[in-house]
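Milestone M4 deliverable, item 7.
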Amino acid sequence: GLDHSSLFRDLRHELLAVLRAVLLEAKVVVYSESAELASRAVLTLLSLLPGGTWLGFNSDGLGGRHFHFRKFGLPLRCFGDRCCVYPYMGLHMLDALVQMRGFLVGTSNRMLVERAAPDVLLT
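Output delivered:
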């Protein structure tokens, strides 16, 4: 499972600002020397958004539950063609990343952090 308590403890008062940045399609990078911690933090942030962990991969064939939530505008459409989410991203995907208007990515590569020029950097 996802550990929300560590995210709340680490971000404290910045958590709402980070969520606002994600909703406003800012460039958000989660950096950790551990790829596991970086990707886990991205997934935990996504889980705080209504329907965020669905990532838009749900289709009409997945059942009535998803259809029911779509009637209420869920999951939120924060990510799409110009705004991406990657729980973990390597340097080889940098060219695609810099063309995005906004993103939420996790990485353990310091060079990617420097070249992506994020609006919000979580370490």
